[in-house]
From TrEMBL:
<dbReference type="GO" id="GO:0016616">
    <property type="term" value="F:oxidoreductase activity, acting on the CH-OH group of donors, NAD or NADP as acceptor"/>
</dbReference>
<feature type="domain" description="D-isomer specific 2-hydroxyacid dehydrogenase catalytic">
    <location>
        <begin position="10"/>
        <end position="306"/>
    </location>
</feature>
<keyword id="KW-0520">NAD</keyword>
<dbReference type="GO" id="GO:0051287">
    <property type="term" value="F:NAD binding"/>
</dbReference>
<comment type="similarity">
    <text>Belongs to the D-isomer specific 2-hydroxyacid dehydrogenase family.</text>
</comment>
<dbReference type="Pfam" id="PF02826">
    <property type="entry name" value="2-Hacid_dh_C"/>
</dbReference>
<feature type="domain" description="D-isomer specific 2-hydroxyacid dehydrogenase NAD-binding">
    <location>
        <begin position="101"/>
        <end position="275"/>
    </location>
</feature>
<dbReference type="Pfam" id="PF00389">
    <property type="entry name" value="2-Hacid_dh"/>
</dbReference>
<dbReference type="InterPro" id="IPR006140">
    <property type="entry name" value="D-isomer_DH_NAD-bd"/>
</dbReference>
<dbReference type="InterPro" id="IPR036291">
    <property type="entry name" value="NAD(P)-bd_dom_sf"/>
</dbReference>
<dbReference type="InterPro" id="IPR029753">
    <property type="entry name" value="D-isomer_DH_CS"/>
</dbReference>
<keyword id="KW-0560">Oxidoreductase</keyword>
<dbReference type="InterPro" id="IPR006139">
    <property type="entry name" value="D-isomer_2_OHA_DH_cat_dom"/>
</dbReference>
<protein>
    <submittedName>
        <fullName>3-phosphoglycerate dehydrogenase</fullName>
    </submittedName>
</protein>
Length: 313
């Protein structure tokens, strides 16, 4: 059996795989797809496979995506060949929840102002700091990541309102609303945070009227996918003072162009799609892949975290 990694894990992680599966031929090659035609399984971040690659992969039966998003994959080509796709849903919750909390606390406790004062050698105590306790957060997408963010926010005394398609209950949410009714809770939100995936339903989901419904000092955070908000709508909300701050980890165009207005805006934090980064990322991905590979070898062709390519998650 041939397993192709299109990224290169650390040496100790490669050794872990080879020791666990001596009968498997592993290839760890950064974006080198020359062995794709013979690969039975491909492990990828999901951004480097084309329809032509899938067509050339004569033996490919399973793609394990070491990410949650699959929007950049050639869906039709994969579906045509009935290739099984799974991902590593759940491994992002700890680093992303910590990133969300770090950004919120940083803004509430005026850390950007304090750091800037230090750089300028200014003893300036006019921080305008506020407290996180007693605030309200609306979380778009209270799944594994959103619920973990909710858990941490609740520990700081924050009221959490979850928003999903159904409006059904989710963990660590004090209230729930459906996406179609989200406008009803936006005026109460001090924080609006999205971890939604990129699907047909979420594409440009938030409109101008949603930002107009938010508090003028609200913090909007997008840690999900950049196409949740049309770029000009986001810019307009910030330039017109419809919200107080935006923390953006994802963008419609990545990398963000050097001449984009966000870079120079005082009410924007540009985070270059790093909220899920962690030294434990690949280790956690392998913790999912290894049991699935054992099952696959023994004949169970239904790995955990299967992805519905039609729904997009």
């Amino acid at each position: 059996m041939d397993v192709l990694f299109t990224f290169v894990p650390r040496e100790n992680q490669q050794e872990r795989l080879q020791a666990e599966f001596p009968e498997v031929n592993f290839r760890f090659l950064y974006k080198d797809k020359s062995f794709l035609p013979t690969a039975d399984i491909v492990v990828t971040y999901g951004e480097d496979l084309t329809a032509e690659d899938i067509e050339s992969a004569e033996n490919l039966k399973w793609i394990m995506v070491a990410s949650a998003g699959i929007e950049k994959m050639p869906h039709a080509a994969i579906a045509k060949k009935e290739i099984i796709v799974s991902n590593v849903k759940g491994i992002h919750k700890t680093p992303m929840a910590e990133s969300a909390l770090a950004h919120v606390l940083s803004l509430k406790r005026s850390l950007p102002f304090i750091y800037e004062s230090q750089r300028n050698r200014e003893w300036n105590r006019k921080t305008k700091s506020s407290e996180l306790a007693g605030s309200t957060a609306v979380l778009l997408g209270p799944g594994a990541i959103g619920s973990e963010i909710g858990r941490l926010l609740q520990a700081f005394g924050v009221k959490t309102i979850g928003c999903n398609r159904s409006g059904n209950d989710a963990e660590y949410m004090d209230e729930m609303v459906s996406i179609e009714n989200v406008s009803a809770v936006l005026p109460d939100a001090d924080i609006v945070l999205s971890v939604l995936p990129s699907t047909k339903e979420t594409y440009h989901l938030l409109k101008k009227e949603h930002f107009q419904a938010m508090k003028e000092d609200a913090i909007f955070m997008n840690l999900g996918r950049g196409d949740l908000v049309e770029d000009q709508v986001m810019l307009g909300a910030l330039e017109n003072g419809e919200i107080g701050y935006a923390v953006l980890d994802v963008f419609e165009e990545e990398p963000l162009p050097a001449d984009h207005p966000y870079w120079k805006m005082d009410n924007v934090i540009v985070s270059p799609h790093v909220s899920s980064h962690s030294g434990k990322y690949v280790e956690r991905a392998l913790d999912i892949f290894i049991p699935n590979l054992h099952d696959w070898i023994e004949g169970d062709k239904s790995p955990s975290n299967p992805v519905d390519m039609k729904r997009g998650y």
